[in-house]
Backbone:
């Protein structure tokens, strides 16, 4: 079968007042902006992309929005992400009327992005200068799509295969950080694949409790999937030696991953630091550290930073950058964030989440290689407070990978 290719040509010309063509301008850099995906964080990716597209410097870049449905289908010409906002609910990528499938020709590299027309012909999406994958969670932030772009030899923003995979998996993040001498929260890792689903893990409760006791973990405990984000599947366990409560929390986490962490709660403030390294080989830079202040906790509620606090309840929290800490402690957080970024072989960007104890000790909780990127997310807000605007931040990240 012969496949026809229709070519999209991106030409820009300058005309004199009389309409005579004078010459061509320098073409904008064509950037595929990816959003959606198969992960639980699908809608958060959509909202992040809405912010990115609104702030993108359109004098420099020509965006090609590529959405990924929850089923994993790549499309162009779908609903315009710039119209999405969380106040109207959680958006999803759907193949609406007029949307076209995206087809990749791996051998063509940066010229290998096509859209399939209704008649079956393939139309080129143009020469792609870079990809900005605003994707959170598995199949977007875990090294899989990064490996695809490596195979195609297509420049992309963000961490590479190793660091993306390692930081997506909280267990291996802790292994790498501990090996680099960076303090992490005490905890254990479980493999739930052999647990008794019929009893919702209740039959495994005593064994799980025994492992917690053997590790000497102190309550409260936080039970979380090893490879999930946006606080999906996270449960706080407060009652010591309650095997049933522990088993129920592990069962909840197992809906998102079979590898599950049980970590000791740390009596500390949660301080987040944005790290930026747009160009390979440059020294990573750290923003002023910020803090998510849980407003309902101040009112007496027993609250932790769950999905609703992050995204759904505007009254639940607010961002403070820099965090109200001594300058010496803020600098220690910045230094630790850069050290952690290097330990996992980070590139482009990451948000390093830390715990800061009352005596000023800094330990790393986790590293997000593609953090939330809405205008009010911690990563852009931290850089804005450090002197880099949202638009300039996006520009730096894209220009850092251009060839």
Residues:
């Amino acid at each position: 079968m012969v496949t026809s290719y229709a070519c999209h040509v991106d030409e820009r010309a300058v005309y004199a007042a009389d309409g005579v063509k004078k010459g061509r301008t320098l073409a904008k850099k064509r950037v595929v902006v990816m959003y959606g995906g198969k992960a639980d964080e699908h809608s958060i990716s959509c909202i992040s992309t809405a912010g990115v597209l609104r702030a993108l410097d359109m004098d420099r870049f020509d965006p090609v929005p590529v959405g990924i449905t929850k089923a994993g289908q790549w499309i162009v010409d779908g609903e315009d992400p710039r119209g999405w906002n969380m106040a109207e609910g959680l958006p999803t990528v759907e193949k609406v009327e007029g949307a076209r499938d995206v087809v990749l020709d791996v051998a063509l590299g940066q010229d290998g992005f096509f859209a399939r027309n209704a008649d079956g012909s393939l139309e080129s999406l143009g020469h792609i200068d870079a990809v900005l994958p605003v994707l959170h969670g598995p199949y977007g932030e875990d090294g899989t799509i990064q490996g695809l772009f490596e195979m195609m030899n297509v420049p992309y923003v963000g961490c590479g295969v190793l660091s993306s995979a390692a930081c997506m998996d909280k267990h291996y993040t802790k292994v790498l950080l501990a090996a680099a001498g960076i303090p992490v929260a005490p905890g254990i890792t479980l493999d739930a694949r052999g647990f008794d689903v019929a009893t919702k893990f209740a039959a495994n409760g005593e064994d799980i409790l025994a492992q917690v006791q053997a590790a000497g973990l102190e309550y409260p405990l936080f039970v979380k999937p090893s490879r999930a984000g946006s606080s999906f599947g996270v449960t706080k366990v407060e009652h010591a030696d309650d095997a049933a409560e522990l088993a129920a929390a592990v069962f909840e986490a197992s809906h998102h991953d079979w590898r599950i962490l049980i970590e000791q709660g740390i009596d500390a403030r949660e301080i987040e630091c944005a790290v930026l390294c747009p160009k390979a080989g440059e020294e990573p830079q750290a923003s002023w550290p910020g803090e998510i202040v849980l407003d309902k906790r101040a009112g007496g509620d027993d609250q932790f930073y769950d999905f609703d606090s992050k995204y759904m309840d505007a009254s639940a929290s607010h961002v403070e950058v820099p965090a109200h800490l001594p300058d010496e402690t803020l600098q220690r957080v910045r230094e630790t964030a850069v050290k952690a970024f290097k330990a996992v072989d980070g590139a482009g960007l990451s948000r390093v989440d830390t715990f800061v104890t009352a005596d000023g000790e800094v330990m790393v909780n986790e590293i997000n290689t593609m953090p939330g990127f809405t205008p009010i997310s911690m990563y852009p807000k931290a850089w804005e407070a450090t002197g880099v605007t949202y638009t300039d931040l996006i520009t730096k990240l894209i220009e850092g990978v251009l060839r």
In short: The chain has three domains: 5-158, 187-264, 267-369+371-399. Residues 15 and 21 are 4 Å apart (CA to CA). The longest helix spans residues 327-343.
